[in-house]
Amino acid sequence: MAFVQVPGNDPPEGAEEHWLEGRGGVKVRVLTAPARGPARGSVIVAPGRTEFIEKYFEVVRELQGRGFAVFCIDWRGQGLSGREVENGLKGHFASFDDPVNDLSTALRLLNDRLPRPHIGLAHSMGGAIMLRALLTRRIELDGAAFTAPMWGIQGLTDMAKRYTRFMVSLGAGAQFAPSVEKKWKRENFKRNPVTHDKDRHARCQDLVSEEPRLALAGPTVGWVAAAADTTESFRTPGALAHVRIPILVVSAGEEQLVDNASHAAVVEQLPDARHVTIDGAKHEILMEVDPVRAQFWNAFDDLANRVAPAAAA
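The chain above was modelled as a monomer; its predicted structure follows.
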């Protein structure tokens, strides 16, 4: 087992690391962990941009305690998965359909470890990948929860979309996008846009300091263009009408990164969706202070009880 470890962030009980080969020969890392006791189903965790499996150990343990087996993935281009560009600090996708395919392949290969029903739990960029996977029918879930999903990006103007698409057409998709960080440096807690929880914030920074290969800087031009393509696909009238599973969408009241208006727009298209905004939450709801997390878990448990009722005591 090769998980990165720092004090206070032990691997979940029974966690195993798996590797698969995605499109283009990219190696993709996946975690599976069994339920604690009889399994009531599985939760498919889809992290956000810059994130990695070890950051979700606490969440995985909480899901195991709820009776779920758990799956979590390092998307290509981040975590310890392989890169498609030479500079490993660049956050790059040529297309969001590549991580969609990685997710689909991994779930198929690890199916015997992931009892049904399956509930998705997707954060930020992972929310874009998971919704795209549902839209294109590449995965089959029985329910899904999205925290601060990246269905729109603050500040991404039509002009910026045109520029990045033009640069991709010139073969410059692997360049850093304009005005983004080109190196990783430990983030100052007071200025961070993602959480009010100092300890959880420090834990993530400690993990990257312990294993520099986990570091990621800003996205590439190609990533921005691909993100624009994917988020625009959610706005196509009727595109999501077939996604009839129960869905929970949780927005952060103090969001600084994704576009909360996009959440309401997508929810309108989903046949069975509940939309909740947590006042006082920053972007990383699952890494927030306990009172914020408790609000999320209450809403998640309501969804889970619909999809995978717990066995009577």
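The domain at 16-307 is CATH 3.40.50.1820 (Rossmann fold).
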